[in-house]
Amino acid sequence: MSIPVIVMGAAGRMGQTLIRLIRQDADFTLTGIVEREEKKAAIASCGCRAETDVNIFLQEDARALVIDFTAPSASLSTARAAARIGAALVVGTTGFSDAEKNELSEIAKTTPLLWSPNMSVGINALLKTLPELTRLLGGEYDLEVAEIHHGQKKDAPSGTALRLAECLAAAKNWTLAESACYHREGITGERPVKEIGIQTLRGGDVAGVHTVYFLGHGERIEITHHAHSRENFANGALRAARWLYGRSPGRLYTMQDIL
After folding, report:
1. Are residues 82 and 161 in the same domain?
2. Which pLDDT score, from 0 to 100, does residue 186 have?
3. Residues marked as catalytic
């Protein structure tokens, strides 16, 4: 059975990538695209019906699955609309506040909802292996995370960098709130033991590079994930859509559930 899909933010780079891949995949049918009125001209060539309000599509077909890589406020609005109908929703948006994440978790109790700040299978496999490596290395290694993205990315650090740092903190029985260091300048003194540095670089057209450093005495371990194109994230979102479609609500699903 082909899954009917609605793509939010169709004029964006992720939206355009999703539209192209959906059309190439027999598992999916592109039933509608959603974009702001001032951007509708940019998607006129998509050859698919476009609306400014996702509710129009959902009222016509409650079976449709929505994919949203937009902005926190817009994604929350989409999630509320999906919950009113009971439609499934895959969200790849980053930059949510803690309060917004809590609202997503509440919405997920009533409609199938999967959210991940990074849809890459490789990144999510890394999230499964980092805690064990952290435990094996013990307390003699300092932990740092660095990320690079294109100059148009709006949030910093990236959602993926924060998730990686949260993973490291949890393995240390720390919280990220007490251990994160986002900026160093001037006479900072010795590096605290209970610290995870998270550094941000921006520029060019970089799809995404994340490096986790384990800095010990006499050696260091670097684990780097390079995203070569947005297809990596779009393919992960489609894998998530296949897994989520027809699943019951109850909690906020993530890519970890799929793996």
Report:
1. no
2. 96
3. 149, 153
